[in-house]
Specification:
binds thymidine-5'-diphospho-beta-D-xylose, binds nicotinamide-adenine-dinucleotide, single chain, alpha/beta, 7-stranded parallel sheet, Rossmann fold, about 350 residues, 3-stranded mixed sheet
């Protein structure tokens, strides 16, 4: 899908899961970068979907919010019937620990929801479908090596398996029906609006409250951290210039152990390392992820701009300055608000 020029009326993009962490950052990014585009945000407002993430742009005439389920065919059909140029599918159950507790919803949303979107995109002849996948589909690395787009899929958690299944469904729709789709596989994101059940916002907010910081196992698991704005830029490049049927790895070139991340947060906030508490390890805990994103760099000219040291400082500053945002979540107040606004969630 070519970029809209300054003179055309712009494209209409359906963003699913736009009230979550990466989806909301992507909507902010797209509104700033392509003011002529129209964005339709389809989000079920699950426990982590938060309209607060978009309150600054809620009044924009170019953004429409639809509360609904990607697995609800009628809703998806109604939206696509209005004329949509591209779909960027962020909507998902995204937390590994929750998938270990109960995989059911992960299959429904991540696999069946994606399949409904693919079906309806095919029916409506949508020009581009971007499936937002994850590095976790490749499984776990030892001390050396990197994931390339050709690394076999070996998901270890129910979450990762559901994302891998969705990727295979996207592939099947490309091969069987010829739909124009691409798959992105990104490493661990961090930045503003991330739900405080994930490592970085949980640790920042716990440290600010002088609560213990629960580190799983020995704390030496390694993740490749990418600043969310860099991820949004990569998706922009792939949405507009990615080649039909291709998979693109996205990474931050910032491998850190969990312990290093937690210590950096404590150090910046001037809090003692005695707040760290080693707890029981996650079941099936992947040891290390590392991404080779040279395909995206060589073919579409993308690479990350923000170093981990810059990004973590900006992120910590945001959570310090936006304490009411995460306090409302941690207290459950925002869920009560949505129940009043939108009824049974
Ligand atoms: P998130 O959990 O913060 O947001 C998910 C959003 O999807 C929420 O707003 C939620 O309400 C919505 N949603 C859930 N079920 C839905 C349904 N049935 N219909 C419509 N909306 C629904 O997740 P995130 O961290 O922003 O991740 C977004 C996507 O990026 C996911 O697909 C995830 O697998 C992928 N991803 C995330 C990371 C990361 O580090 N966070 C890394 C790589 C890939
Ligand atoms: O309390 C914690 N203590 C801890 O040690 C939590 C929540 C996590 N961890 C560890 C587990 C992981 O090794 O920190 C690391 C990061 O954990 P998460 O933030 O839960 O992320 P991860 O499991 O790596 O998955 C994330 O990146 C890939 C996203 O949640 C996924 O949606 C994405 O696909």
């Amino acid at each position: 899908m070519a970029e809209g020029t300054g003179t055309d009326k712009g494209k209409t993009i359906l963003v699913t899961g736009g009230c979550g962490f990466i989806g909301s950052n992507f909507i902010h990014y797209m509104l700033a970068r392509y003011p002529q585009y129209r964005i339709i945000n389809l989000d079920i407002l699950s426990y982590c979907g938060n309209l607060d993430n978009l309150c600054e742009v809620a009044d924009r005439p170019t953004v429409t919010f639809v509360k609904g389920d990607i697995a609800d065919r009628e809703t998806v059909r109604r939206i696509l019937g209005k004329g949509v140029d591209a779909i960027v599918n962020f909507a998902a159950e995204s937390h590994v620990d929750r998938s270990i507790e109960d995989p059911n919803l992960f299959l429904r949303t991540n696999v069946l929801g994606t399949q409904v979107l693919l079906d309806e995109a095919r029916e409506a002849a949508v020009s581009r479908f971007v499936q937002i996948s994850t590095d976790e589909v490749y499984g776990s690395l030892g001390a050396s090596g990197v994931f390339t787009e050709d690394t076999p899929l070996k998901p270890n958690s129910p979450y990762a398996a559901s994302k891998a299944a969705a990727d295979l469904m996207v592939r099947a729709y490309i091969e069987t029906y010829g739909i124009d789709a691409v798959i992105t596989r990104c490493s661990n994101n961090y930045g503003r609006y991330q739900f405080p059940e994930k490592l970085i916002p949980l640790m920042i907010s716990n440290a600010l409250e002088d609560r213990e910081l629960p580190v799983y196992g020995d704390g030496l698991n390694v993740r490749d951290w990418i600043y969310v704005e860099d991820h949004c830029q990569a998706i922009d490049a792939i949405l507009h210039r990615g080649v039909k049927g291709e998979i693109y790895n996205i990474g931050g070139a910032s491998e850190r152990t969990n312990l290093d991340v937690v210590k950096a947060i404590l150090h910046t906030l001037g809090k003692p390392e005695t707040l760290i508490r080693f707890v029981k390890d996650r079941l099936g805990h992947d040891r290390r992820y590392a991404m080779d994103f040279s395909k995206l760099k060589n073919e579409l000219g993308w690479e990350p701009n923000v170093t981990f040291e810059q990004g973590i400082q900006q992120t910590i500053a945001w959570y310090v300055e936006h304490r009411p945002w995460w306090e409302r979540i941690k207290s459950g107040e925002y869920l009560e608000y949505y129940e009043r606004m939108y009824g049974n969630r």
